[in-house]
Design goal:
By secondary structure, this protein is mainly α. It has a three-stranded parallel β-sheet. β1, α3 and β2 form a beta-alpha-beta unit. α1 runs parallel beside α2. It starts with a helix and ends in a 10-residue tail after the last strand. Its EC number is 5.6.2.3. It catalyses: ATP + H2O = ADP + phosphate + H(+). Its cofactor is Mg(2+). This is ATP-dependent DNA helicase. InterPro entries: DNA_helicase_pif1-like_DEAD, P-loop_NTPase, PIF1_helicase.
Length: about 120
């Protein structure tokens, strides 16, 4: 399936380093676009992290995980300052620190399902 004009525009913006928020109803090609972005950025040797808010959504993508696991926020019981302190100072969060340092592009599928607390 080819990309439409709007999807091509979004892909070009992402490959040029811009932040993009793609909204749309089910079946409008958001997942297809994410897969095309991943393919394009992998060619450019970018380190991509594909995450989602639910386990069902992230199961669509190879090597994906929930944004909560990727970021170290876990189940959301800690506030932003507490999460930052834990991630920065506890040895068991070294892998999270590494993800934060080495990821060039972070994709969050279903980001509208994230609480404002996350940001």
């Amino acid at each position: 399936m080819d990309l439409n004009g709007e999807q091509i525009n979004a892909l070009n913006k992402v490959t040029n380093g811009h932040n993009v928020l793609k909204l749309g109803s089910a079946g409008t090609g958001k997942t297809h676009l994410i897969k095309q972005i991943e393919k394009s950025l992998n060619k450019n040797t970018k380190n991509i992290a594909i995450t989602a808010t639910t386990g069902i959504a992230y199961a669509i993508y190879a090597n994906a995980m929930t944004i909560h696991k990727w970021s170290g926020i876990g189940d959301g019981r800690f506030n932003t300052g507490e999460v930052k302190s834990v991630v920065l100072h506890y040895a068991e969060f070294a892998i999270v620190r590494d993800r934060l340092k080495t990821t060039d592009v972070l994709i969050i599928d279903e980001c509208s399902m994230l609480s404002m607390k996350f940001f």
